[in-house]
C-alpha cells in the first residue's frame, strides 16, 4: 500500500549493525593503531602516528555504516590506510579484515596529519639524509578524514565520504 510506505520511517542504522561487526571493528581499530604506530613515512624513517580518541570514534562509526549494506558486513572489507600530506597521499598499510572471507568491498581510509604540526615535520616526507637507526617521532593525526568505498562485486561508482 503506497500510503503505508509513506508513513513508514527508515530503519534505524543502529538496528542494522551486527554485534559481531561491533567487536570486529574494535579489533580492526586496534590493528589500525598498531599499523600507524610503525608507519613508514619517508626514506628509512618510521614515525609513530597517534590516532586521537575522537578520530577513532568517528572512523568506527563510518566503517560500521559503510559495512552494514555489504553481504558479509565488515568481515568482507579490505582496508587501505593512507596519510595525506599536502597534495601527496602516503600508503601506510593494507588490512584484510577477515582473511578467511572473500572481500566484497575495499575501503581506503585517508587520514590527515594535524596541520598545526607542519613546521615540525617539513622534512618528514622527503628523502633527506639518513637518520640514526631506530629513530622514531610521534605525530598526531587530525580528526578530519576521508573514506573511499569501492564495491568489488559491482560496477557501481566509487563512494567518497568526507568527515
From TrEMBL:
Compartments, as annotated in UniProt: Cytoplasm; Mitochondrion
One Pfam family it belongs to: RTP801_C
Record bears the keyword Signal: no
Single GO BP term: apoptotic process
This protein's record includes keyword Hydrolase: no
InterPro entries, A to Z: RTP801-like, RTP801-like_C_sf
Source domain of life: Eukaryota
GO cellular component: mitochondrion
PANTHER family, per the entry: DNA DAMAGE-INDUCIBLE TRANSCRIPT 4 PROTEIN (PTHR12478:SF7), DNA-DAMAGE-INDUCIBLE TRANSCRIPT 4 PROTEIN DDIT4 (PTHR12478)
Family indicated by similarity: Belongs to the DDIT4 family.
Name this protein carries in UniProt: DNA damage-inducible transcript 4 protein
The organism of origin for this protein: Anseranas semipalmata (Magpie goose)
Gene that specifies this protein: Ddit4
